[in-house]
Amino acid sequence: MTARIGVVTFPGSLDDRDTQRAIRLAGAEPVALWHKDKDLQQVDAVVLPGGFSYGDYLRAGAISRFSPVMETVIEQAKAGLPVLGICNGFQVLTEAHLLPGAMLGNNHLHFICRDQKLRVENAETSWTSDYESGQEIHIPLKNMDGRYVADEYTLDKLEAEGRVVFRYLDFNPNGSLRDIAGITNEAGNVVGLMPHPEHAVEPLIGTGRTDGLPFFTSILKKLVGA
To answer: Is 22:197 a contact under the CB 8 Å cutoff?
Structure first.
């Protein structure tokens, strides 16, 4: 029996089906989860996908954070459930305080969509073990509110504890402090990033590369080997 990975759909989710496809390509079973249902259907991990949940009203992710499903996600994430937040999902994770900091509007005040070069800074999380530390990858990026910010104490702590998982290379697309593209919690089971690995899992689409697939093979190997 393979691992079952849930993908939450909120009103306004955009990339839930793409994420399910990426999970399937990695060899796991995707499980659709609805935002109004607290039951996670006994999945082994959860992905909060990209999109514009609730139209990004108030702040991106601010309303989704209070969806019934998030009550269970928060509880189980604190108990060790692997959770990945992609783009809007990353915003939801910061609003839910599963990850520190906040996401603000891009410093150039425009939506941006491009292939983005990243450096893997931490290959020891539940979602990045199939990468190597220092590896450079290309992942599609598309966001309006992708600027990661935090106070200096939090930023220094993230750096000191190795919790910056990905960093933008060559070009900072949104003004994120210290070029941070993704971070993890202290336990390494919760990861959030702005770029979209689900759009880089087969040569036909996205960057024309498969640099995003290791996100999903990493978690599969962790769950199957557990």
So the answer is: yes
d(CA 93, CA 74) in angstroms, rounded, equals 9
Which candidate in 35, 138, 198, 199 is catalytic? 198
| SS3 label, residue 146 | coil
**Interatomic CA distance for residues 22 and 19, integer angstroms:** 5
Q: What is the pLDDT of residues 87-115, one digit of tens each?
A: 999 999 999 999 999 999 999 999 999 99
DSSP 132: -
The secondary structure element, H or E, covering residue 149 is strand 147-149
Query: Among residues 95, 121, 138, 196, which one is catalytic?
Result: 196
Residue 72 DSSP symbol: H
Catalytic residue (choose from 87, 95, 138, 199): 87
Q: Is 138 one of the catalytic residues?
A: no
Q: Is 87 considered catalytic here?
A: yes
The domains of the chain, with CATH numbers, are: 4-224 (3.40.50.880)
Residues 112, 66: Cα–Cα separation, whole Å: 27
At residue 167, the pLDDT reads 98
198 counts as catalytic: yes
Report d(CA 207, CA 7) in Å as an integer: 23
